[in-house]
Amino acid sequence: MERDSTEAAPDAPTDPFALLPPDLTDAHPPRTARRMPWPSILVVLVAQLVISIALITPSTYSLAVWLDGNLPETKDSLLAFAIGASSLVSMLVGPVVGAISDRTRTRWGPRRTWLVAGLLIGTVGSAILVTTVSPLQLVVGWSIAAVGYGVSNNIVLTHLSDRLVPAQRGLVLGMSSAVIYVGPVAGVLIAGAVSGAQPLMFAIPAAAALVGGGLLAAVMTDPPLTGPVPRLPMRRLLDGFWFSPRRYPRFGWVWLNRAIFFVGVSFMTLYTVFFLSSALHLDPARIALTASLAGVIGIAASTLAGTVAGALSDRASSRLPFMVAGILLLCVGLLVIATSTTLPQYLVGTTVNALAMGVYSAVGQALQFDVLPSDDVQNGRYLAILGLAMQIPNAIGPFLAAGVLALGGGQYAFVYVAAAAVVAASILPLLALRRHRRAHASDQPSAPERRRTA
Fold it and tell me: Is pTM, for the whole model, over 0.85?
């Protein structure tokens, strides 16, 4: 596991924030050396499942169904705008919350406080979606919901980064990736079953997230920070959007890999409903059943691939071969889908994609934890910066995909081909990461970690 050193903290605070600690070294309790117990892990997995239902189901199914049924003439552009706008708002909010969560002082504890806040914000957004009667209300409601559930999702991941020891990361994050894959499948099954009563497509996932996330908030280990409450310079908040690639080169290459990869992923998930409708001539109910069937198959595939690859990567000298294998496998799956003319071929493509995403998600999350600064306890800040590598593509990807669709004459298959090309390009930063030689002594891994090289 290769780590990067931390940057120095600025000295002069200027702006008042009521929930902040005095310095970066007091930002959060040091990462524990004890293994996270399995009962605690299981509660986290349940929370991730229900939050992913609320976060991903609308963007992959419910919004498209609502637009197809109410505004079919402008559904392509409106879907791209709704997803892009919500991702842009999340991109602006997420890093700020990540930076502040490292320094939040309440008796609930920093992670629990923001988990609850995110769940409540997401519930408000979902309530707006339940009463949607116009495109503007749809965009506003989904933007609020996406911000809230996105914050909750990031805080759960940050909680894992606080608690998991290196020897647990690959296995647990492999299971976590599989659970996150299960969420949208369960969500589509639920949304498809109630698609005739469209408000329920948004209400049921929101209720599940509130209950499951609330359970984690009630039982999670998150001791409050102690000490006097200081002020925080505004520019420290902006640090949640920035890091020095020159000072933290491996962190930078991992960030770039994820950014390119998720541009391709944003292409492949945007028009699924419309692709199934046009290429395979399915109605909304059959689309839900098809997506659910693909998801059930994919759950088994991604669970197997993620847990096996994650566990093997814990024992290997490098995680990068697993990452490259996942990327290449996803390219194959995308091309199979692009050329689909039958349901079996589409299901084969989605199964290959599930295997690929299981490998990439599990090993990729472990690699993220590996490159977190080893002598800094700002997990929330750095994971939020890594989160930008997904949020920026989610914000710009839909608009790029709409442009690709226009260039392809409205052929959704062309979008999948473009997605494969972009995903393949994400290998380049990994090759640079492999070749990179540490130029600074501060970038050396600690002694117990030297066996792993990127």
Answer: no
CB 395 within 8 A of CB 87: yes
pLDDT, tens digit, 9 for 90 and up, residues 174-227: 788 778 777 877 888 788 778 778 889 999 999 999 999 999 999 888 777 676
| SS3 sequence of the chain | CCCCCCCCCCCCCCCCCCCCCCCHHHCCCCCCCCCCCHHHHHHHHHHHHHHHHHHHHHHHHHHHHHHHHHCHHHHHHHHHHHHHHHHHHHHHHHHHHHHHHCCCCCCCCHHHHHHHHHHHHHHHHHHHHHCCCCHHHHHHHHHHHHHHHHHHHHHHHHHHHHHCCHHHHHHHHHHHHHHHHHHHHHHHHHHHHCCCCHHHHHHHHHHHHHHHHHHHHHHCCCCCCCCCCCCCCHHHHHHHHCCCCCCCHHHHHHHHHHHHHHHHHHHHHHCHHHHHHHHCCCCHHHHHHHHHHHHHHHHHHHHHHHHHHHHHHHHCCCCHHHHHHHHHHHHHHHHHHHCCCCHHHHHHHHHHHHHHHHHHHHHHHHHHHHCCCCCCCCHHHHHHHHHHHHHHHHHHHHHHHHHHHHHCCCCHHHHHHHHHHHHHHCHHHHHHHHHCCCCCHHHCCCHHHCCCCC
CA 363/CA 368 separation, integer angstroms: 9
Residue 242 has phi, psi (to 5 degrees) of -145, 145
Q: pLDDT tens across 58-106, in order?
A: 888 889 888 888 888 888 888 888 888 888 888 788 777 776 777 777 8
- Non-local (6+) Cβ contacts of 397 within 8 A are 84, 87, 262, 263, 265, 266, 267, 270
